[in-house]
Amino acid sequence: MSDWSQLPDLAARRGGGSVVAANDEFFAERENLVRDEPPTYRPHTFNAKGQVYDGWETRRRRDGGAGPDWAVIRLGIAGIPAGIIVDTAHFVGNFPPRVSVEGCDVPGHPSVEQLLEADWHTLVPVSAVEGDTLNSFEVDTDRRITHVRVNMHPDGGIARVRVHGNAIPDPQWIDDIPFDLLALHNGGRVTACSDGFFSPPNNMLQQGISRFMADGWEMRRRRDDGNDWATVALAAEAIPAVLEVDTTHYKGNAPARISLDGYTSDGELIGLLEPVTLQPDAPHRFRLDTDTPVHQVRLNVFPDGGIARLRLFGRITLAGRTYLENRFTAAISAH
């Protein structure tokens, strides 16, 4: 699997993803496709329709048709997909022999009927898959996608679908509105980190309140004199004003202190927040005193611990606004 698997999952339920329609879900519900948890299996667990599967499963086709069976997923984060994982975990005698995936970009809040009539294009051509396997497919596109349609040829079961890629936010939701420069759905993402042993750092850039400890970023215990850190790319160049750091659920393993640095466009590292003490299981807010635009920040954690959520609010520069506008326009015009 390529490095694209480290990019945010644009379809994840915790990011707002949803399975809005399917032509059939007789044996197992379509909503399971975007569940955040890894798929599980309990043998000899039956309901009125048969063995219970943690995934989406359609009935056996008896009409002689070649299919496909299909499910439409609304991405929680609109963006450009770089790779797609079709996970057939625990589907052994009932997985589809082939799958394909299509994408479309429909603004606003379209109905199912409008989506089915949309201009769909191929992201993953009809391809063979294996059962009980993470089937990964690299995607080559420059188009912004809001929805994907997963097709099974002709029928069967899929546990999870992950759509890894880069967010392309609509610039109309930036001006005169509080804007989180680090949020995954706005295009922020972790580009490097010292450690993500217990849970990955992109977790702390998710929407909403952290649900439990593994829903944030947690490192292993350090046994040296160093400290942990994560470098995060902003959605665009901006002048940061307020930092929010949340240690919810981290009670015996919150960091002792944190600090924040910023990278300017010419690579200079500047201090944005001197080391400050954190409390366990608590939200924190800090004002930043700078007039210097930055495009990345580095969160320093002393010495280690867990961060549930990280937010950074500020003013996008003209150059940053132009970058977002051009990127959005290019992704739309690629259709």
Automatic annotation (TrEMBL):
A Gene Ontology BP annotation from the UniProt entry: purine nucleobase metabolic process
Q: What class of enzyme is it?
A: hydrolase
Annotated keywords: Hydrolase, Purine metabolism
**UniProt-recorded Gene Ontology molecular function terms:** allantoicase activity
**Per its UniProt record, what Gene3D superfamilies does this chain match?**
Galactose-binding domain-like
- Which parts of the sequence belong to the Allantoicase domain? 16-167, 187-316
**Could you confirm whether the keyword Hydrolase appears in this record?**
yes
Give me the reactions it catalyses: allantoate + H2O = (S)-ureidoglycolate + urea
Q: In which pathway does it act?
A: Nitrogen metabolism; (S)-allantoin degradation; (S)-ureidoglycolate from allantoate (aminidohydrolase route): step 1/1
Pfam families, A to Z: Allantoicase
Q: Which InterPro entries match?
A: Allantoicase (IPR005164), Allantoicase_dom (IPR015908), Galactose-bd-like_sf (IPR008979)
- EC no. given is 3.5.3.4
- What family does the entry list? Belongs to the allantoicase family.
Q: Which PANTHER family match?
A: ALLANTOICASE, INACTIVE ALLANTOICASE-RELATED
Q: What is this protein called?
A: Probable allantoicase
Record the organism: Nocardia macrotermitis
Classification of source organism: Bacteria, Bacillati, Actinomycetota, Actinomycetes, Mycobacteriales
Q: Its gene?
A: alc_2
